[in-house]
């Protein structure tokens, strides 16, 4: 029997492909004709709740900051960052993106990354680090995939090379 090992890079590529598929799907294609969509939405937990709310987001971001601090590939993009502001803004952004109670009013991802000249390889590596941070935080793969699917459309505004 042949053992198949999925490397970190392959895992990242698979997740990016899945994110693309998820981001292209239409919520209206999943309408159950027997259930009022408003009542269904009220009983279904938001992604923010499924992640574990603010404590879980804080844990993910703390792990991500620690991982970035030890990474030779992307650390240079964060070296001059105000870590407290980065953490606060990323928490609000992810909370908003996951349908939590936060309203993100910060700069657009395109404005934030302007002049950074992030390559596809750097972006993909960052996704791997983000996945590692979610793994370290005990976030399940289905929940990770849902969050990554919501982040996937930002890819085109961040990569500039």
Note down, in words, how this protein is organized.
- This protein has helices at residues 8-24, 37-43, 47-51, 53-69, 75-78, 83-97, 109-112, 120-136, 141-151, 155-158.
- Helices cover 63% and strands 0% of the residues.
- The protein is built from 10 helices and no strands.
- It has a domain at 48-158: Globins (Globin-like), CATH 1.10.490.10.
Walk me through the topology.
Elements: H1 8-24, H2 37-43, H3 47-51, H4 53-69, H5 75-78, H6 83-97, H7 109-112, H8 120-136, H9 141-151, H10 155-158
Helix pairs in contact: 1-8, 1-9, 4-6, 4-8
What attributes does this structure have?
0% strand, 161 residues, mainly alpha, disordered N terminus, Globin-like
């Amino acid at each position: 029997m042949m053992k198949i090992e999925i490397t970190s890079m392959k895992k990242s590529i698979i997740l990016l492909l899945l994110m693309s598929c998820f981001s292209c799907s239409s919520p209206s294609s999943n309408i159950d004709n027997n259930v009022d969509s408003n009542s269904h939405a009220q009983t279904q937990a938001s992604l923010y709740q499924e992640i574990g709310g603010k404590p879980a987001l804080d844990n993910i971001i703390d792990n991500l900051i620690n991982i970035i601090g030890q990474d030779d590939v992307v650390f240079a993009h964060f070296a001059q960052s105000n870590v407290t502001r980065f953490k606060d803004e990323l928490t609000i952004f992810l909370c908003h993106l996951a349908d939590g109670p936060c309203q993100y009013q910060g700069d657009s991802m395109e404005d934030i990354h302007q002049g950074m000249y992030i390559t596809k390889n750097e972006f993909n590596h960052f996704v791997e680090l983000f996945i590692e941070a979610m793994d370290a935080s005990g976030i399940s793969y289905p929940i990770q995939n849902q969050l990554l699917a919501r982040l996937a459309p930002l890819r085109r505004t961040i990569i500039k090379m």
